[in-house]
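Hi everyone, sorry if this is the wrong subforum. Our group has a chain we'd like a structural model of before ordering constructs, and none of us has done structure prediction before. Sequence below.
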Amino acid sequence: MSGKTPSGPLAGIRVVEFAGLGPVPFAGMLLSDMGADVVRIERGGVERLAAHDITARGRRFVALDLKDRDQAKTALDLAGKADILLEGFRPGVMERLGLGPDDLLAHNPRLVYGRMTGWGQTGPLANAVGHDINYIAITGALAAVGQGTKPVPPLNLVGDYGGGALYLVMGVLAALNEATRSGCGQVVDCAMVDGVLSLMSMFQSWLNIDSWKERREANLLDGGAHFYTTYACRDGRHIAVGAIEPQFYATLLRLAQLEDPAFIAQHDSTQWPDLREKAQAVFLTRDRDEWAALLEGTDACVAPVLTMSEAPAHPHIAARASLIAKDGVLQAAPAPRFSRTPSAIQGAPPQQADDPDAILSAWA
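Answer:
Right subforum, don't worry. Here is the predicted structure as tokens:
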């Protein structure tokens, strides 16, 4: 972190983050962006955090060998003065280090102890290894994404970040809010499998009433509907169409000149495969940016499918400064936005470790 006073609604909140992969550093980044003072505990010998790692921005770090009793005591002391702790180890690891919830809550009864795993702290797979693709596989989410022939992992957005980091942040902040009233901390068991199933609630509702077909590209929101899918254009790039409401669908038909009378049967799912082919033939007559010039911003609900390299130049993203250059690194601006206590990137990934004694003194 820089020497300036942190900006954001979490200014004054102290967070200890144990170094990990995926959702834990991303959760730490989000808390830092909102003003929390985040201190990462790295393994002994680490001299700097990767300068290109956007998720490492805005925090300090200390390097500790947690198998050394004195250095583990330093970690205990830091947690003793923190409001929130984040860790992403397999169940039992922190306990073996003497840094489990019982140890730390005895030392700091108000501590919110956030535990981030794929499988959760209990259950037959609790101690199994895994990655995002494994966690979303058993929830039904992975089976629903992709084309008809095979499931396609949606990057690691659904498990690690959607069902993981975002639920972790929500959970620890909810527990912190409760702790301000009760004076008592607690453990937040955040499992990606739980979070992903929560994210799937709407689709579960549809499945419960037989309104969801368990086949890819057979439903309203999985690319099955010809009015909610992507189309290749003449130049090999794509557009995204999302004209669900009848008035928006009518605008799409009119502006794209989808004149075949068969398009009238918008919600006849038996016609969707044929209508996708008919629409595809039309969209192949122009380049992506020609279609964007014609349809983007209209009630047709159409947008160009941009690459990550193209996204910064899009007028809407540029106007909102949703992507910004900080210390020469292009990165997402803090989100969400607050009207009175705006978030901010608190600094670049630190290039040297901090003195834990100095942090403990400042946190006194």
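For your construct planning: The first helix runs from residue 23 to 33. The chain has a mean pLDDT of 96.
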